[in-house]
Design goal:
Helix content: over 70%
Shape: globular
Number of domains: 1
Structural class: mainly alpha
Oligomer: single chain
Distance between the termini: 14 Å
Order of helices and strands: HHHHHHHHHHHH
Number of helices: 12
Length: 284
C-alpha cells in the first residue's frame, strides 16, 4: 500500500503546486515545459548506465513511450484550457470520474475480478467526487465549452488504461527507461511549442516559472513512477478508484489547511464517503 499512498500524496501536492502558480502568476505552459525538461533529466540521472540508445531502440515498448509522451503534454494543455473555460470544479469532477474507464477495461482486457464490495466502492467513489466538488453557486456554461471536460474524461481514462496495458504487456520492469523516453518526448514537444510561442509573444521564462517547473517536474516523475510500481501490484479496479478518490480527498484537505478554502457540509459528506469507498475497495 506504500506505493498507493505515495501516489496519492505526491499527486495531491501537484494540485497544490498548480494552485501556487496562480498566486505567483506563473505561466502554466512554460512551467509545464520546464517540468518535462526536469522529469527527463531526472530519468536520465536515475537510469544512469542503463540508458543506452542502442538498447532502447530495440525495446518493444519504445513506440508506446513516444505515444504516451504526446498524450501526456496535450492532456496537460487540455486540462488547462478546460479549467479556464469550463471551470476547475467541473474539470476536476470529469477527470476523476474517468476512473470508470480503466476499471471496466481491467475487467474486460486483463481478466480482473469484480465483486459486490468493489462495485459499491466504485459507485461511492463517483458519488464522493460529485459531493466534494459541489458548489451552491450556479454558473452558466456554453454548450460548446462542455466538450472540454468531456474530452478530459476520455483522455484521463485512456491514459490510465493505456499505462496499465503497457505495464501488463510490454514493460517487464523497465519503468525508469520507459518513463524517461515518455517524458523526453513530451519535453521535445513542449520546447518546440515554447519556441513558437516566444517568436509570437516574446515572453521570456521568469525565475518563478523555472522554479515552479522544477518542483512540478520532480513531483510529476515520482508520482508516475510509483503509479507504475502500484500497477504491477494491484488490479485496476482497486488501484484507480483508491488513488483517484484519495487524491480528491487529500487535495480538498490541503485546500482547507493551506489556502483556507471553505468546505460545505456537502463537501465534508463527500470526503467521508470517499473514505468509506476506499475501505470497501480495500476490503474487497
Amino acid at each position: 500500500m506504500i506505493h498507493i499512498a505515495l501516489v496519492i500524496i505526491i499527486s495531491s501536492l501537484i494540485f497544490v503546486t498548480f494552485k501556487l502558480f496562480d498566486r505567483f502568476k506563473i505561466d502554466n505552459f512554460q512551467a509545464i515545459t520546464v517540468n518535462y525538461v526536469v522529469a527527463s533529466a531526472l530519468g536520465f540521472f536515475i537510469a544512469g548506465s542503463q540508458f543506452n540508445y542502442n538498447t532502447i531502440i530495440e525495446k518493444q515498448w519504445l513506440v508506446y513511450a513516444i505515444s504516451i509522451g504526446f498524450i501526456f503534454i496535450f492532456t496537460f494543455i487540455l486540462f488547462a484550457l478546460s479549467s479556464q473555460k469550463a471551470g476547475v470544479a467541473i474539470t476536476a469532477v470529469f477527470s476523476k470520474m474517468s476512473v470508470i474507464i480503466p476499471v471496466i477495461a481491467g475487467t474486460l482486457l486483463f481478466s480482473e475480478t469484480l465483486n459486490l464490495l468493489k462495485v459499491l466502492g466504485i459507485l461511492f467513489t463517483l458519488a464522493a467526487f460529485i459531493l466534494i466538488f459541489y458548489k451552491k453557486e450556479k454558473s452558466k456554461i456554453q454548450l460548446s465549452i462542455i466538450i472540454l471536460p468531456i474530452l478530459i474524461f476520455f483522455a484521463n481514462g485512456f491514459i490510465d488504461t493505456f499505462l496499465k496495458y503497457i505495464e501488463f504487456n510490454h514493460i517487464s520492469g523497465d519503468y525508469t527507461l520507459f518513463l524517461t523516453m515518455g517524458f523526453m518526448t513530451a519535453c521535445i514537444i513542449g520546447i518546440i511549442i515554447s519556441i513558437l510561442k516566444y517568436i509570437k509573444t516574446k515572453k521570456q521564462f521568469s525565475k518563478q516559472t523555472i522554479l515552479g517547473g522544477v518542483i512540478l517536474g520532480i513531483l510529476n516523475y515520482t508520482t508516475t513512477y510509483f503509479l507504475f510500481m502500484a500497477m504491477s501490484l494491484f488490479q485496476s479496479n482497486v488501484l484507480f478508484p483508491i488513488t483517484n478518490v484519495g487524491i480528491v480527498m487529500l487535495s480538498a484537505l490541503f485546500g482547507l489547511i493551506l489556502f483556507r478554502e471553505k468546505l460545505s457540509k456537502t463537501n465534508w459528506a463527500g470526503i467521508l464517503l470517499s473514505i468509506l469507498a476506499i475501505l470497501l475497495i480495500t476490503l474487497a
